[in-house]
UniProtKB/TrEMBL annotation:
Residues 145-404 form the ABC-type uncharacterised transport system domain. This is ABC-type uncharacterized transport system domain-containing protein. Keywords: Membrane, Transmembrane, Transmembrane helix. The keyword NAD does not apply. InterPro entries: ABC_transp_unknown (IPR019196), DUF7088 (IPR055396). The keyword Membrane applies. The chain crosses the membrane at residues 449-471. Residues 38-126 form the DUF7088 domain.
Length: 484
């Protein structure tokens, strides 16, 4: 008897110990499993990478009244905190803590204040993207300065529009960059604080003075993002060949796979990318409406073989070719002609991560003496080693305009490209899949089954079963009464 009692007590203690241990582990570690197809309740890889790379503590204060529904924001803040212990948060009621609200200049419920060191950012009813942008801005030691070259018919980044790139500007500003225009024609040099220069599809030639300004910028290790317009040819392409060894061939890339998928053979699709930080683990399809092709310039001299070379970043498929029969493209009758057209794959995008090639260009007339002296010094040291410059080149500008940047993986590729140029590799990753509208299409028979089975058949079957049971019970009682 005593032995059985002791075994029962011991078993109970073991069960209690196991339950306590499981409870302690559950309290220290949060397990989640997101079964949604677009990972709606998980953080994107971009957010995870940014939070893991935090270099200082970040504290978020969310001001919500009990009636304003803070649960969604609380869940989001909890996901952020789970990625890095340096990210902490609290949810407070502005009516119960009015002094705290006034101290942080909060005037409306639903405001989240993200604090890092002595800097802070305020946002209203945040989603994942806005909260991440606030964290990036609050932790940025200095604001990245991005300038967009103007004066040659380039793509407009200020105003929204199908052919403009306002979403590109928004992408940069959301990540803490200062974006503004620069006119090379009236500048002696690109300001020293400029971190990145954007050249977006110029339609007119550059003056010699402007090319000299670009020379000085890349010679000091400046970062460059260039998107060319396939329909226009300017002397900027000659400059790109001289300084980076990059050539854009005449013609347009035709993609038969794109014609099958989207009905437009002039929009090549890309699923193959170089193995480098921008496209590491990048498996999304990108598309380039009306794109040309890029090549590395052939070495004409023996010394040119030792010069730095551009490398392919984005590649078209093997089913593509470079069509030079423009009239045939317009009429829709273009086809691959052996010996005339060039067979793919091609570079749709290229990158350069070396010192720029030396230039022999002479200073343009009319510049200040200090500028001419700078040019003379650069030309005199053409053979010496220059700082490494990062540059990206694309043979199409449409893929980053408002009409196309959100299609496929275009936005992810552009974001990764900009972060690589700005040396923010910690933010290079791929966003989670976007929500996709799913429609349920049923046949008439399926609609009838869904309508009548729960409304008529199931209740009718239950009624029949109840009647059968009642009749059997009545007959059973009658039989027992007859025996009695």
């Amino acid at each position: 008897m005593f032995k059985r009692l002791s075994m029962t007590i011991l078993t109970g203690l073991i069960v209690i110990a196991v339950l306590v241990g499981v409870n302690v582990l559950a309290g220290k570690r949060d397990w989640r499993w997101d079964a949604t197809s677009n990972k709606r309740y998980s953080l994107s890889e971009t957010t995870k990478a940014a939070l893991r790379s935090l270099s200082e503590p970040v504290h978020a204060v969310a001001f919500f009244r009990p009636t304003d529904g803070a649960s969604q924001t609380g869940d989001l803040l909890e996901l952020f905190a789970a990625q890095n212990r340096d990210f902490t948060y609290e949810i407070v009621d502005p009516d119960r803590t009015p002094f705290r609200a006034r101290q942080l200049d909060v005037r409306q419920s639903g405001t989240v204040v993200v604090q890092a060191d002595s800097r802070s950012e305020k946002i209203m009813f945040p989603d994942e993207e806005r909260l991440l942008n606030a964290v990036v801005k609050a932790t940025s030691r200095s604001e990245s300065v991005v300038r967009v070259v103007t004066g040659h018919g380039e793509v407009d980044v200020q105003e929204p529009g199908s052919r403009n790139a306002s979403m590109l500007r928004e992408l940069l500003t959301n990540q803490g960059a200062s974006v503004g225009p620069i006119t090379l024609a009236i500048a002696e040099s690109v300001p020293e604080d400029v971190d990145l220069l954007l050249i977006l599809a110029p339609a007119q030639d550059y003056m010699d003075h402007e090319l000299a300004v670009l020379d000085r910028y890349v010679d000091r290790g400046g970062r460059l993002f260039v998107a060319l317009m396939p329909e226009e040819s300017t002397n900027l392409e000659t400059w790109l060949e001289e300084r980076f060894g990059l050539v854009r061939n005449e013609g347009f890339v035709v993609d038969t796979l794109s014609q099958v998928m989207s009905g437009d053979a002039m929009t090549p699709l890309a699923q193959q990318y170089a193995r480098m930080p921008i496209t590491e683990n990048f498996a999304l399809m990108t598309l380039y409406p009306t794109s040309a092709a890029l090549f590395a310039a052939e070495a004409e001299e023996a010394d040119a073989e030792d010069l730095p070379q551009p490398r392919g970043l984005v590649f078209s498929g093997e089913q593509t070719w470079l069509e030079t029969n423009i009239q045939g493209l317009i009429e829709g009758s273009a086809e691959f002609n052996e010996g005339e057209d060039i067979k793919g794959p091609f570079w749709l995008g290229a990158f350069y991560n070396d010192p720029p090639r030396p230039t022999t260009r002479q200073p343009a007339g009319g510049m200040a003496e200090s500028t001419i002296a700078d040019d003379a010094q650069h030309n005199a040291t053409a053979g010496s080693e220059l700082p490494t410059t990062r540059a990206l080149f694309f043979a199409d500008q449409d893929f980053l305009t408002d009409d196309f940047i959100t299609i496929g993986g275009n936005k992810d590729l552009v974001r990764n490209s900009l972060n690589w140029l700005l040396e923010r590799e910690g933010l290079i990753s791929v966003d989670k899949p976007r929500p996709v509208a799913t429609f349920l299409v049923m046949t008439p028979l399926q609609r009838a089954l869904i309508t009548y089975v729960p409304v008529l058949i199931v209740p009718g079957a239950c009624l029949v079963l109840a009647i059968v049971v009642a009749l059997r019970r009545r007959s059973g009682r009658a039989a027992r009464g007859a025996k009695a």
